[in-house]
């Protein structure tokens, strides 16, 4: 055992039911929790370097888990599953309108947790700096699955999230997105390896966020389809809704795909900024593959096939080159149009499952689907 390991081991606190006694000094401590009370207290009372490990099982908090406790860049707070155990934090015992987890803090690493059945949004990170979310699931909630919001939303990374089945019944599905980065500002935010599907509204939504966000290696599919027999269904169903509310922002989307969405695959959504989309693929979305009528978007090496309204609706300010709708550019054949493998389990490291769906082997156009 190394000195470092020994130090951490002696700092481990095994907590009994309801006895969440945490060190108040700012020292590293590993806290293993196995009930809702200890989990709630551990989250609330974390200090820089605290490692919270949650034992396997399904947790049903009766109040929102929340924290304003900051880590630091060199000593983040860690919240994760214990070992390889499966942890589900279930919102079905929360009051109406509640979120499962609200973080208003900096430098947290959160990983290997499922947040399900929230009455409202599942996870909301408000004015967070330097948080890293790895292998998170936000599913079957009553509003958006995962949200970054507020000014001071800086340098956050969302890696390998699955966000699906979210539906806001009260508004007939109008608002529940897979990932929402909305109503705020701050640079350096990255979404990578996300799988966003079967949400009532959009896969990704950057409504009223005034700083550029980068998306890569992400799949957004089947959003905005009325799966809830809602006779007044109002979901929009864009794969990537890249703006709105008058903000002029140069969001970036690389090597990502949208398919089977009820709206557009990728849309500026009235954002007139210099959006950048490279090597993305839009397939079989009900409206446009790419809707960029008013922006000064730079569209390069994108591939659009079988979208209901057409491949692209682009205004005169758009720069377009190397896309399959540009003159002289061919459309490579897909190896597969059977999406079933895209829903498979992720790799052991959390990356997207292997698939041939929408792959072409091209080194010059379209998403590589990994
Ligand atoms: Ca909407
Ligand atoms: Ca939306």
TrEMBL record:
Ligase as UniProt keyword: no
Keyword Cell inner membrane: no
Keywords: Calcium, Lyase, Metal-binding, Secreted, Signal
GO molecular function, one term: carbon-oxygen lyase activity, acting on polysaccharides
Any one annotated GO CC term: extracellular region
Subcellular location: Secreted
Source organism, top-level taxon: Bacteria
Signal peptide boundaries: 1-28
Cofactor: Ca(2+)
Residue stretches spanning the membrane: none
Residues covered by the Pel9A-like right handed beta-helix region domain: 130-322
Stated family: Belongs to the polysaccharide lyase 9 family.
Protein name, per record: Pectate lyase
Organism listed in the record: Streptomyces griseorubiginosus
């Amino acid at each position: 055992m190394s000195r470092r390991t020994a130090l951490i081991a002696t700092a481990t606190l095994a907590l009994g039911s309801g006895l969440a006694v945490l060190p108040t000094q700012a020292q590293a401590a590993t806290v293993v929790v196995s009930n809702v009370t200890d989990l709630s207290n551990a989250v609330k009372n974390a200090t820089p370097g605290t490692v919270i490990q949650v034992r396997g099982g399904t947790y049903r908090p009766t109040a929102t888990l929340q924290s304003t406790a900051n880590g630091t860049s060199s000593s983040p707070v860690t919240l994760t599953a214990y070992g390889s155990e499966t942890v589900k934090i279930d919102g079905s015992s929360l009051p109406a309108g509640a979120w499962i987890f609200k973080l208003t803090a900096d430098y947290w690493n959160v990983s290997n947790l499922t947040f399900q059945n929230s009455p409202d949004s599942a996870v909301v990170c408000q004015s967070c700096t330097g948080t890293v979310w790895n292998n998170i699931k936000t599913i079957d909630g009553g509003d958006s699955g995962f949200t970054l919001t507020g000014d001071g939303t800086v340098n956050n990374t969302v890696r390998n999230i699955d966000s699906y089945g979210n539906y806001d019944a009260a508004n007939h599905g109008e608002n529940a997105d897979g990932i929402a980065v909305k109503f705020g500002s701050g640079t350096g935010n990255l979404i990578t390896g996300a799988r966003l599907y079967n949400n009532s509204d959009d896969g990704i939504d950057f409504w009223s966020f005034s700083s550029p966000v980068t998306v890569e290696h992400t799949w957004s599919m089947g959003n905005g389809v009325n799966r809830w027999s809602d006779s007044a269904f109002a979901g929009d169903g864009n794969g990537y809704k890249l703006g709105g509310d008058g903000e002029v922002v140069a969001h970036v989307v690389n090597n990502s795909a949208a398919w089977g969405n009820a709206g557009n695959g990728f849309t500026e959504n009235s954002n007139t900024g210099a959006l950048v989309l490279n090597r993305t693929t839009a397939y079989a979305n009900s409206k446009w593959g790419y809707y960029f009528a008013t922006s000064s978007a730079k569209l390069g090496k994108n591939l659009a096939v079988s979208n209901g309204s057409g491949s692209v609706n682009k205004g005169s300010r758009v720069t377009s080159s190397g896309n399959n709708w540009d003159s002289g550019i061919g459309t490579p054949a897909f190896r597969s149009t059977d999406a079933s493998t895209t829903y498979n389990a992720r790799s052991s490291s959390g990356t997207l499952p292997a698939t041939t769906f929408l792959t072409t082997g091209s080194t010059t156009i379209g998403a590589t689907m990994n």
